From TrEMBL, chain A:
One matching Pfam family: BPD_transp_1
GO CC terms: plasma membrane
GO process annotations (BP): transmembrane transport
Keywords: Cell membrane, Membrane, Transmembrane, Transmembrane helix, Transport
Organism expressing this protein natively: Actinoplanes aureus
Presence of the UniProt keyword Membrane in the record: yes
Protein name, as recorded: ABC transporter permease subunit
Spans traversing the lipid bilayer: 63-83, 104-126, 186-212, 218-239
From TrEMBL, chain B:
One Pfam family it belongs to: BPD_transp_1
Name the UniProt record assigns to this protein: ABC transporter permease subunit
Gene Ontology annotations of biological process type: transmembrane transport
Chief location: membrane
Bilayer disposition of the protein: Multi-pass membrane protein
Key words, A-Z: Cell membrane, Membrane, Transmembrane, Transmembrane helix, Transport
GO cellular component: plasma membrane
TrEMBL record, chain C:
Source species, domain of life: Bacteria
This protein's name: ABC transporter ATP-binding protein
Domain annotation ABC transporter: ranges: 6-235
Sample GO molecular function, one term: ATP hydrolysis activity
Keyword list, A-Z: ATP-binding, Nucleotide-binding, Transport
Keyword Heme included in the entry's annotation: no
Keyword Transport: yes
Length: 247, 258, 254
């Protein structure tokens, strides 16, 4: 019990100590890596500055909108495609061909047409999040136990009820785990649009700080990105566990 | 549906999409959307000539190196974390942090520490692959059936055989799934790392083409990247089929990241 | 025949503060087949895992051939209850059988020969190159038995080895084991909760009480050898023994 709480804390403290002593002692050049203390100071400055929160707002907004848009398109479509073998076959080739294309591929084109605004970010996030969500949902819907389906039919549930009350609940765990992955990759893609595409947000602050060679600020911003990633993973992990429980 | 009509049915949509694009592009004269012929010509000129050794090979070489180093290190670390509980407890929060930190966010840090160049690119790829594989290998090692562990102990199978013939194959569904996820992440990271000022590489050429209004070349780059992503994924499906698939095991969807 | 190969003395096992095995004592003589029966949850698997050196007792001891068991001993082979989980799906049948032999230091060819012999002995010639999942449940369990026999153990420990196959296959496997005992000169400890099986196969039966388990009685089975599914099971002696064990097991579970 104690070990469970003490060891992780010890690990974090150890890493922090290692960072601070390596940078202080000159083992790692201060032009390569800032000290932990200066990073923490920079983080404090960030937390008190308005542009930082505006950037966070930009990143979070595009992340959330991109994710919601992906889910809004992918989940109903996945349900429809998954419920019919014919429909699935019809779209199979384009879907399987488009899925493995990294979202970065359409960045140049999207940048050209959408000029790096929020629509641009959402488009890219969707390329990253929509296909896996679509495919997982349709798998989840098709993977359903035949007996359950036959039972539903024998009680003469209509197509609509079968989809909503039988297929969707059965697919939920897979959808939830796909959503967790999609949320993580949506965040990564949001950062890419800001780092490469110059869209406003956390990534853009990073580029600016790196350009100004403000190392503590770069590290502080990276830390923030990591913490946000943790938050997202924790939130969607909780959702996933809830869904798994209600089954 | 017979086999033939089944195939035809599947071909309708992709054929219609391609034909529709071509039909529209030829007529629309929109510079952003060049017709297929122009893209194909530019593809050949950019990637199949000297560009192949100048840009495609270096990109792929970075990808392969970074991916393999990250994969091997991740598996090795995962075996260690899976077996040693103290390490797992000690490093748990740090590993969790680096798992969810998108690798692309580390680009500025890598650029500052290593400068722009192959070392930096490989470094980011290694990082992006390492933690996904690490976490899933750890989970795979933890999930090895107790019955198999008993077999290993009862028959006094030595540590090397136990690792390579028993534990790692048993954890393979996790490792293979992670390796597949990691590969698609690595492709993304490779391209992004080339877009932050690298003088060569597929990503660099593609972004530069866009900035120089060479839209057919930009499309050629997009097509190449799409082909790359698609064929690597397809190759991996084969790997999966001939390992865990043949053993009657199913690849899991474990912890992901990007 | 009277020298003791295995002696289990005052074996006690706590899981946390749950007492599973409470001072179990019995012995197994060289060449004997001893069954351990008892109701579900009696602690049979626990006792057997301790004998196989897979589990530490809380107190008491197990000695095999005069040597105290502290870990899996070199000349003990185990057949686990769940065949599908105890075979390595990524190895062929041959690979599964040779793995322990190679680990034991046999050369590749020696291991191969021993494995093929054992596979033939359990009636599995021609399956060496197949993978476990391509075989039926009964065949998979025979692979597990072949793996144990090829290991040439002094003691073969089996935990409900026939529990997850159908009745017909079960009889086939029982009849497979009987002659192999002689052929491989092996002492066998068999855990089962099938009383017919225990009476049919054993020289002696150790009856355990419900957990925390103690030895209720050790019964000598004086049925003639060789045994047969039809003739032996029709003997009055068989019915009497069956009755005796059943009463013991029943009396304590009610
Ligand atoms: N790892 C464990 N942790 C805690 N309790 C355990 C553990 N293994 C077994 N037990 C408990 O110990 C008792 C004996 O279990 P054991 O598996 O030895 O019984 P068994 O006689 O083999 O039963 P069965 O016939 O069902 O296989 C049971 O009450 C069981 O709940
Ligand atoms: Mg048991």
């Amino acid at each position: 019990m104690i070990r469970r709480a003490v060891l992780p804390a010890l690990g974090i403290a150890g890493a922090a100590g290692l960072w601070e002593s390596a940078t202080r002692s000159g083992l790692v050049a201060p032009t390569d890596v800032p000290t932990l203390t200066s990073t923490v100071t920079a983080l404090g400055d960030l937390l008190g500055s308005v542009p930082f929160w505006v950037a966070i707002g930009d990143t979070v907004r595009s992340w959330a909108l991109g994710l919601v848009a992906s889910a809004a398109v992918a989940i109903p479509l996945g349900l429809a495609i998954g419920a019919s073998e014919r429909a699935w076959r019809f779209v199979r080739i384009p879907v399987e061909a488009l899925r493995p294309i990294p979202p970065i591929v359409i960045l140049p084109l999207a940048l050209l047409i959408l000029h790096g605004g929020i629509t641009f970010k959402i488009m890219l996030i969707m390329q990253g999040a929509l296909w896996p969500l679509l495919i997982q949902t349709s798998y989840g819907v098709r993977d359903i136990d035949r007996v359950v389906l036959d039972t539903a039919r024998s009680y003469r549930l209509g197509w609509w009820r079968r989809v909503v009350f039988v297929r969707l609940p059965a697919a939920l765990p897979i959808v939830a785990s796909a959503l967790k992955l999609a949320a993580a990759s949506a965040f990564a893609v949001a950062l890419v649009t800001e780092l490469i595409g110059g869209a406003p947000g956390l990534g853009q602050l990073l580029v600016v700080a790196a350009g100004g060679n403000d190392l503590p600020r770069v590290y502080a911003l990276t830390l923030v990105a990591g913490l946000f990633g943790l938050l997202v993973a924790a939130a969607f992990g909780a959702l996933q566990r809830r869904v798994a429980q209600t089954r | 549906m017979s086999r033939l009509t089944g195939l035809l049915w599947q071909a309708i949509l992709p054929a219609a999409l391609i034909a529709g694009y071509q039909f529209w592009a030829v007529r629309a004269h929109n510079p952003y959307f060049p017709p297929l012929g122009a893209i194909a010509r530019e593809f050949r000129a950019t990637w199949l000539g000297p560009g192949f050794t100048e840009h495609v090979l270096p990109s792929l070489w970075n990808l392969v190196r970074g991916y393999l180093i990250g994969l091997l290190a991740g598996v090795a670390g995962g075996v260690l974390l899976g077996r040693v509980r103290v390490l797992r407890d000690l490093l748990g929060p740090l590993v969790g942090f680096f798992l969810t930190l998108p690798a692309v966010a580390l680009l500025p840090i890598f650029v500052i520490a290593l400068g722009i160049g192959a070392t930096m690119q490989v470094g980011v790829i290694v990082f992006s692959v390492f933690f996904v594989v690490l976490v899933n290998t750890t989970a795979g090692m933890r999930a090895v059936d107790a019955a198999l562990i008993d077999v290993g102990r009862a028959y006094r199978i030595g540590p090397l055989r136990r690792l390579f013939l028993l534990l790692l194959p048993a954890a393979a569904p996790y490792i293979v799934a992670a390796a597949r996820t990691a590969l698609s992440i690595a492709v993304l990271v490779m391209v992004v790392s080339e877009m932050v000022g690298a003088p060569y590489g597929i990503g660099a050429v593609t972004l530069l083409a866009q900035q120089e209004f060479q839209y057919a070349r930009m499309w050629a780059g997009m097509v190449l990247l799409a082909l790359l992503g698609y064929s690597l994924n397809a190759a991996f499906a084969l790997v999966e089929r001939f390992t865990v698939g043949r053993w009657g095991m199913v690849a899991t969807t474990g912890e992901g990241r990007s | 025949m009277s020298d003791t190969l295995v002696s289990v003395e005052h074996l006690t096992k706590f899981y946390g503060d749950h007492l599973a095995v409470d001072g179990v004592t019995f012995g197994v003589r060289t060449g004997e087949m001893v069954s351990i029966v008892g109701p579900s949850g009696a602690g049979k698997t626990t006792a057997l895992r301790i004998v196989a050196g897979l589990l530490e007792p809380t107190s008491g001891s197990v000695t095999i051939g005069g040597v105290r068991v502290t870990g899996p001993p070199p000349d003990v082979a185990v057949v686990f209850q769940d065949y599908s989980r105890s075979l390595l799906p990524w190895l062929t049948v041959l690979g599964n059988v040779t793995l322990p032999l190679r680990a034991k230091g046999l050369s590749r060819t020696a291991a191969r020969t021993a494995a093929l012999d054992a596979l033939a002995a359990v009636g599995l010639d021609g399956t060496a190159r197949r993978r476990p999942r391509e075989l039926s449940g009964g065949m998979q369990q025979r692979v597990a038995i072949a793996r144990a026999l090829a290991y040439r153990p002094k003691l073969l420990v089996m935990d409900e080895p026939f529990a997850s196959v159908d009745a017909q296959t079960r009889m086939d496997l029982e009849d497979l084991i009987l002659p192999l005992r002689q052929e491989y000169a092996v002492t066998i400890m068999l855990v089962t909760h099938d009383i017919d099986e225990a009476v049919y196969l054993s020289d002696r039966i150790v009856v355990l009480s419900p957990a925390p388990s103690t030895v209720l009685r050790v019964i000598d089975v004086d049925l003639p050898l060789p045994r047969s599914q039809t003739a032996t099971k029709e003997l009055p002696g068989f019915a009497r023994l069956r009755h005796e064990v059943l009463d013991l097991v029943r009396a304590r579970t009610d």
